[in-house]
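thought: fold this chain, then report.
action: predict
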Amino acid sequence: MAPTFAEATAVKATGSHTYTGHFLSEWCIGSVTHGGVVTATLLRVAATHFGTTLARQRQPHTITLHTEFLRRTRTGPATFTVKDVKLGRQTSTIHVTLTQDGRDEVVAYITNANMTTESGLTLQTGWTASPPLPGPPKDFAKLAADGEDADWVVLKDLPYPKLRKASNRILMHLPRNGQVQPNVIDEWVRLESGERLPPEALGFVSDMWPQMMESLVMRQQQGPDGEKQQATKKTNGDRDDLPWLWYPTLVLNLDIKKAIPPEGVEWLHVRVQSKHVKNGRYDYEVLIFDQAGDLVALSHHVAMVLDGKRNTAMRGDGDSKI
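observation:
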């Protein structure tokens, strides 16, 4: 049985501003810890730090996160060093450096507040998602039990499951009739372990979906006549005859609009959209909604498409460097 999400993102304080964690192979893509797991662990560090060292601030909720992935992370121990950058009455900001083997691998700025007590100007903007979101599952209990309902079906047979192990840790439910357009993915997600999704899971689900790039490659290879064939697959990239590609994140931003309760939630709806793919570099905009239809978080990514050998190459090998 694979380690749970709580186990994969657990951290322990070793000082007032230092924490340790241990990245697990079952939550990796190839030999690299999945970026969403790293992000979730950074959120766990922030929650622990604001719950202990900075408890006097009474700011338990992360509202923004900016992460720069400098180098590949790997399985094994990791150290997180926190610097209190700005402590304020409404918001406080910390800087976190993730190191392994003496190398700075990831750096992040994280801002916390108290979303329970915050107040200020509130306006209705009239914004709606475009294209419109598909309707939610009619029966979440049936979807959980059977993996499908009239409109949604769980994604099976992911390509390269032995390499993309982290993808097996979450159940992704896609529209039965296919996505609304090629550069958009809608999914309802829950953890494979049966755990509820805690606040830190926003870091994971903001970086976990069927690989859109592979679907776009297939579409371009097939041409206009391939569109109908692809629509029948219902699984944005369920082919394993494509080369093993790696999609490392360079930058991940998270803007949290609504606090997930400490006990977590079972389901989240994730909408992913890419606007521009050129020269191996691309963007993602991610919207995350809860079962009530409320916008929980926004996320923006800058990422790359690389040969999978770059993921598994030995450190120090020329192929290993981004």
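thought: worth noting. The mean pLDDT is 89.
final: tokens above.
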